Please model this.
Amino acid sequence: MNVGFIGLGSVGAAMSRNLTKAGHDLIVYNRTRSRAEEMQSLGARVADTVSEAAFGVEVLITMLADDRAVQEVIFEPGRAIESLSERSVHISMSTISVDLSRRLAKSHAEKDQNYIAAPVFGRPEAAAAGKLFILSAGPSEPIEKCRCLFASMGQKTFMINEDAPAANLIKLCGNFLTTTVIESLAEGFALMRKAGVDPRKFLEVLTESMFSAPVYKTYGEMIAANKFEPAGFKLPLGFKDNRLLQAAAEEASVPMPMASLMHDRFVAALAQGLGNADWSAIAQVTYKSAGL
Amino acid sequence: MNVGFIGLGSVGAAMSRNLTKAGHDLIVYNRTRSRAEEMQSLGARVADTVSEAAFGVEVLITMLADDRAVQEVIFEPGRAIESLSERSVHISMSTISVDLSRRLAKSHAEKDQNYIAAPVFGRPEAAAAGKLFILSAGPSEPIEKCRCLFASMGQKTFMINEDAPAANLIKLCGNFLTTTVIESLAEGFALMRKAGVDPRKFLEVLTESMFSAPVYKTYGEMIAANKFEPAGFKLPLGFKDNRLLQAAAEEASVPMPMASLMHDRFVAALAQGLGNADWSAIAQVTYKSAGL
Amino acid sequence: MNVGFIGLGSVGAAMSRNLTKAGHDLIVYNRTRSRAEEMQSLGARVADTVSEAAFGVEVLITMLADDRAVQEVIFEPGRAIESLSERSVHISMSTISVDLSRRLAKSHAEKDQNYIAAPVFGRPEAAAAGKLFILSAGPSEPIEKCRCLFASMGQKTFMINEDAPAANLIKLCGNFLTTTVIESLAEGFALMRKAGVDPRKFLEVLTESMFSAPVYKTYGEMIAANKFEPAGFKLPLGFKDNRLLQAAAEEASVPMPMASLMHDRFVAALAQGLGNADWSAIAQVTYKSAGL
Amino acid sequence: MNVGFIGLGSVGAAMSRNLTKAGHDLIVYNRTRSRAEEMQSLGARVADTVSEAAFGVEVLITMLADDRAVQEVIFEPGRAIESLSERSVHISMSTISVDLSRRLAKSHAEKDQNYIAAPVFGRPEAAAAGKLFILSAGPSEPIEKCRCLFASMGQKTFMINEDAPAANLIKLCGNFLTTTVIESLAEGFALMRKAGVDPRKFLEVLTESMFSAPVYKTYGEMIAANKFEPAGFKLPLGFKDNRLLQAAAEEASVPMPMASLMHDRFVAALAQGLGNADWSAIAQVTYKSAGL
Model:
């Protein structure tokens, strides 16, 4: 397919590489142009402007850092929404707010464009291996049409429902659950360490019995090793997702004390200088509070 | 082997049945004698007293509700520790405090008896199917000798280390992690419900991606169904384990804010009349606080 | 003095009445005009527009519900900042964000206008009696000039420092402390009630010993009576202030777990239908969680 | 009156001095005898044993560190309850559990002895100045008889009710409220410090307006100065009181999230080496978590 791709961070770059390898015709844009140029050798064209990346494509994929970046790219004067043709599809794969997703759905509909929310689970390694989990929501026909794209990027695509923002809510809530796993492991490991039991023994028991899931294995290893750099997913991005979740919870009037605890952990982590670490470094706040 | 078995609650009864079926020679004791008599048809003998169940056996297994029950059975005048012979083995499979486990290790050692801590993960169904996960810690030779017993009761036996109380600490900490899973799911599901997204769709995404572990499947189903009776593991027992964990954390000077949050949830659940429900009914406290 | 006054809610109306009684020459504006007209009998003039209320006055006082209202009144086209003359003074007495106060300071300075932040402590009764506590911050000369105005509205005016937003931060933090008093009393009273001790006896002990402050007396009475309507200060406004505090704390990277707890209480209160009650009705969330 | 006095810590020593000065005839006992001997110059007799201090006195006052100390002194073989005569009065002024107070009430009643619970608010300086606040509960006639004693030790004596443990509950709950004041001030001061506002200015505003109570003045000064030694009330004792409160709350099924937060603060403070500091040093945990 004829695809525009905006946003070549570590996950976005891997995704666009996999799309190119699968034979799709890509035109890529990145604010820092050098990252886009790396894609040229694989056959992608480089757009000079957002508008160029959106112009005439069947599908525009955005994979950007936050709400502000998406708003800039889509809504600002001379930006994507004006260049996309009728019946084209915008797949927003960034982790953005439920509120912005709602606004995108509305704005694209007004222009007879299709909007799909398709945020992903997976760290850069998973993206590189085409092993992302993709949560797609929106009108079913365009989603059907884009299945081959999803298949090039992920190991599995979930069909949430026809209401695009539902995928964003599930994504944010999944990230919230990941932070609770990090914190619970950090508290447990701190106890093991101070009681003289090897945290890795505890982790082995967990991951070979009731807790045999990737999220425990991946983060358990990092927290047991107490090593959080280089970052696969930077702490300030994790904090941003926590804020978006809290905003959705406030809007729906749902008190979430665990989300509040995670909020406090993120703030403390930044106060303690962990802004460049992986988001799992919130475990260090827990360790330090225990005198470790 | 020649085995005394004390404590025929729903899990203990299943374990003793599996031992009998595997050909071991059991003498069983239960405070409410009728539950012991049910074992007679399977070939077990019924002891009239704790002392009789412990006298002359190679291995004594205890599977009781709490510290007090274990203390009564083992330490009170005329009780098991006096009837066990030298070199016999006491396998304590109950979920008890680290502190009591330490005291048992010491007391049995003074009498030249062997002490193994072997708490289990698994609800009654798992016990019936011989699918428990067993965490064994203590001196390696007796553990080796008891492997065939563990094999009859569980699908996997972990060797923690030679310090028996380490198994109890890991067990308590595993239960703590389970409570955090329950609470995080409850908060997430409350948000889904109020935002109009089917919690089961969210659960499907979780358990087929990063959170593909039994603990999410088992409790996710219960919390999505908002149905917590009949109880597989009663709420007050879960609260007891939370207290034992907090005691261990206090002793080691490890602040565990998530454990404190769970403490508050258990207290609220009891205040709201959920004392007969499964421990996952703490989710209802979360639901109610959100006005659901 | 020649004073424009915008915002005649229950506190603002009382303040403007006291200014008029003290002989100041007021021109008042309120979105709902009828509330402004009530002031006419006291000698105040009624402005048809914000601009009219700001035009030519020596001092403009704003006492509005939230950031949005202040922004609209001051910054929107045809609004106050354009009508105020050079060297006039804007006294912002609303409880607004530190961030907006910073922006006001900057914008007024660019127009050679003076900006004073002077938020207040005190419920409507205190405002009526001229017993507010006023926290003033900003350039000292204009503050000196406005002392007579403050004296007509409050029992005491604090001079914070020359940086206007400092007064807003202190105000928000004072409101935060008030919420912690409400919650701590609610938890204590819940315990007294369930243990069969009269909460009023506990309150008497507190307020006649170490806790002999108005904040304990005022809220203690309300929480003991479990009566939160009519509202002196509506719960959603208290929640707004909690949010503004959390924003300031995030900006400064200060984890405030008590502020997070209060956040959760406000969300729960709204979920449980307490949006029209006094902000101290967060105590009912605590009562309900205890099964009361 | 003829008074036995057991427990000469910093507060107990000051209390017994004031009783002696007021003309009462004291016989004092302290585990570390040297502290008792200091009382001889003031005219008190020194008892060699607990039993001697209790024998034949009209009133026995105990002022000890914790439940265990009180239990030892009163209940162990050869201890006070056996030496006290019928109709004598035991005034328990220590901060003990509601549960132990209940047990004391019952045991003294069985021996036809009177039991009054009369815990106090006040730090050592207040005790020295005879300015304690005394919370008395129990049978009214003996309390009436002991009024002159209370008057020598405190500035005010509250009559709670006829159920002695009620005084202990109120005392524990008062200490809980004090910890919430410490934490709320610490969070607020951390924010002020990082935002460049002098915490003492904030404290001045508080204590001269809505928060004009001794508890804010005393602890506000200490937390602003960030100086927590020498300890007026040691942190581990404050933690003990937190535990006793949580036990009472558990028994009554009252979830108290603020008490849980304070629990975590105490554990963190001990983990961070603050065991010899004043209990208000929990503020340092808050400061450190903010990177201060």
Q: What stands out?
A: The longest strand of chain A covers residues 154-159. Residues 168-289 of chain A form a domain with the N-(1-d-carboxylethyl)-l-norvaline Dehydrogenase; domain 2 fold (CATH 1.10.1040.10).
